[in-house]
Design brief:
Elements: E1 13-14, E2 35-40, E3 46-49, H1 50-54, E4 59-66, E5 71-82, H2 83-90, E6 98-103, E7 108-112, H3 113-116, E8 122-127, E9 130-131, E10 141-143, E11 156-162
Parallel strand pairs: 1-5, 2-11
Antiparallel strand pairs: 2-3, 4-5, 5-8, 6-7, 6-11, 8-9, 8-10
């Protein structure tokens, strides 16, 4: 009999609530001034207004959600645009190895291209069948289920494709560059050279 991987990562506590954590104020959404940009090492830079983004093909995923502050929530239903769909619009160049997600108020988070292009990584417009609330990232939130939740950046506004890795907001303030909950990659002091 094969050992099954436990569903709850080490050091996590299960909750049915969906706590709200973020740095700074909840930004107000103005659809007339909102756009989503895809740029950097791409064949074609892309800029989409909210209506254009909302009309892209949508997918649903069900995924667990793990916060670095030690809570986890099972079976979240997300709906939105797959990261792969957005990458296909801009066509990353062969040198692209990383992405930096740009969000409201200058917030950023970094991912390897491999993590970004996984089948279940998406930019969510909805959670639990309803549009996101402002506190949970309305109008658009990146969802990266296999990494700690700070990588699932709220209020997303763009993706920059890059050759070299560049740390984002929390990664440059002491959080782990990768953020794998199964390895408890919480802090930069745990990184191997």
């Amino acid at each position: 009999m094969k050992d099954e991987k436990p569903r709850l990562p080490p050091g996590q506590i299960l909750t049915e609530k969906f706590p709200v954590l973020h740095y700074g104020e909840v930004p107000e959404f103005d659809s007339t001034n909102w756009d989503f940009r895809i740029f950097g090492l791409v064949e074609q830079e892309v800029a989409l207004d909210f209506d254009e983004f909302s009309q892209l093909p949508s997918q649903r995923i069900e995924a667990d959600f793990h916060c670095v502050t030690t809570w986890s929530r099972y079976d979240n239903l997300w709906e939105g645009v797959l990261a792969r769909t957005l990458a296909a619009l801009a066509r990353p160049l062969p040198g692209a190895r990383h992405v930096l997600i740009h969000c409201e108020q200058g917030y950023t988070t970094n991912l390897s291209l491999e993590d970004f292009l996984r089948d279940n990584v998406l930019f969510a417009l909805k959670w639990g069948g309803k549009k996101l609330t402002p506190e949970h990232g309305y109008p658009l939130r990146l969802v990266v289920p296999h990494l700690y939740a700070w990588k699932s950046a709220k209020w997303a506004r763009g993706v920059e494709f890059m050759e070299d890795n560049r740390r984002g907001f929390w990664e440059s303030r002491g959080y782990h560059n990768n953020g794998d909950p199964w390895r408890e990659e919480r802090f930069s002091s745990q990184e191997q050279d």
